[in-house]
Amino acid sequence: MKKYSGFTLLEILLYVVIGGVTLVVAVFSFAQLNRLSTSFRVNNELNQTANSIIEQIKNLANEADNIISPKLGANADDEIILRKDNVETTIKQESNNITVSYSNGDPSYNLNTTGILVVNDPATTLSFEQIDTQDNSNKSSISQSIKLKFTLRYNKPEFSSYEYEAEKLFETTISLSKQSQAFKPILNTYPTGANGVAYGLRKLSGFNTNPNQLSSAYNGPAIRVRRDRGLDQTEMDIGFNSKGELDQVALQNFVGYQNFLSYSEDITTTGGWVFSKDINDNNDTISITADNTQAPDGTNTAEKVNLSAGNNNKSITKNTNLTIGSTYTESYYVKANGYNFVQIAPDTEFSTTAYQNYNLSNGTLGSSSGISSGQANIQSVGNGWYRISLTATANSTTSSPINSIRSGRMVLSIVSSASSARLESINTTTATDSIFVWGAMRHLGSTLKPYQQTLANANTGDGYVTTWYDQSGNRNNATQTSTSSQPKIVDGVNGIIRMNNKPVLRFDGTDDQLVSNSFNNPTNSTAFFVASRLANNQSFMARSTNYAILGSPDLFNSYYLNRSNTAATTGGDTKNSLNLYTAIRTSAINSTLAIGAGSAGNFLNGNVAELIIYDGNKLSNRTNIENNLRDYYGTP
Asked: Of 76, 149, 478, 563, which has the fewest CB atoms closer than 10 Å, so is most exposed?
């Protein structure tokens, strides 16, 4: 906001004589000149203050041993945390200043001492963003650049005879001269010992930031996953990407997403698909036959729609269970074979009036009714094939009994033009012209997801962990053969299950557990685990009748929560959030370990990201081990 008032009558005329010609360059009032001078001064003050803030942050970052925030998975981007010799320096916005505080209790101070405000109305403006990481072939660190943004405001001094306010956004990239540690595999520095175990969804051993330099300690996968695709219950090992993190791309591609339509590439009468009948409801107006035409995936599995003679609707549909109030997206791959136009019409439990037409001759949307922008889509996938889709919300259109689960459908029809009416009847005298169809899918949500094939049963798109591999080198893997007791890692609707943007194993609180071989530690043990739970009495791990979590009977003697220096109490952890637990046992353990299990009624309803049990007492290394886990998972 800029305002001025004052001298308005007296003007100064500025003239420049060029080649004997006098030109009027500008006309200024004294008030305008005063305002212009003030503008230069204020902007100069804003720039000087901003440069000072930027330089101080850069110096603090370069003096640190490690830059631990912002980082992948961090919840907030409005602060940066630096560490040097286990003392953490936090830079963040507090009120109208950027402040620096220390974890060891040293006095905090403001980076901005000029009185020019850091804007926090209506919201905090300071932000840090990690924008670049590079492998520098160093075994423990990567280079890092950080984008810093903040806004300064200059307020009019109270004694001023005129009004002037200014606000300016500053943005810069800080390339750090120090190296920033992404994460260092903790077992490289602190191995578990001969009787330890280590389960994680990141590389815990034998890895550094140069993917060509792997140690021999552990080079196996992280987990083995079973995908729930109807009759297809295939399992696959999932390893790590080049950064040492769980290979989430491979995991999601293997498991896929939920597809409610069974026989997605076998649209025949044996697949439960329904074809339109003639006016007397006697004969099907279409039939589907296998054809040698190449499908979008390169196989010769495309199917041909054969049209019966007569003036009727030519359509394909399949009912599935729908949840009233939920949004679904239906899609098909289609290719013209004489007929260039198709239609998807939401029907039972969706709408009896809406429809969308698709033009297969040029890949465009045709006319529609009751369809909003973004609900329909057509995209070319090559070789004349298009993937068409329509999104609709299931709202009851019948008088069926009160029940949130209803049987419903959308209808795929062949129509005569891009402007055809809903479920149009077309008159055919020959079956020569038709369309090809392949790859049907119906899934929850309004965002079109990658196509997933289904067989006799629909694909749930869920992924379950059958084995959590021990990375300690002691080969004490945790397994589960019962499908009903396997923890979930991929949800068919939402994809990979995450907390703090990191993958986690989801335990259902009923019977989910992964069981190791006998854990035989003759003296004492130290456990570190990153996990969440919904209630105080739920266990993260058990052996026979003892369960390991802040309660009684208990497998461990004492607990420390989120790097606290004092032992934790039963309800000290934040529920449904990732916490960092350190547990100490001062006597032997000689039994199997069941992750997620507990005594009756105490199974874990929550998530586990990492569990490491050391052979012996590791309290002297506790700070470094906890910092490693905390830095990666973003726990308190």
From this structure: 76
